[in-house]
Fold this sequence. Notes:
The chain is largely without helices or strands. The chain is 14% helix and 10% strand.
Amino acid sequence: MIEFTFKFTKEWLGAKASNTYILPEIIFDPSLVLSPYIFLLGLLFADRAFDRVDSEEVLVLASQLPRLRIRDECNELRL
Length: 79
């Protein structure tokens, strides 16, 4: 499951509560091309949306995902 919380998108009329969008688990079948995961992650990689964490390598390609390491003190990696 992937959760996205957008920040700094509702500043025109003052701060508002942020929305969190949840994408369900990937289903591996021929329709994977139409998966919201693939579409959204493709956009995020194209825009280089992932920040550095403690001078570690930035994710820029989908092929780097298998090497993704979540630090011991974290249960998630923040965007």
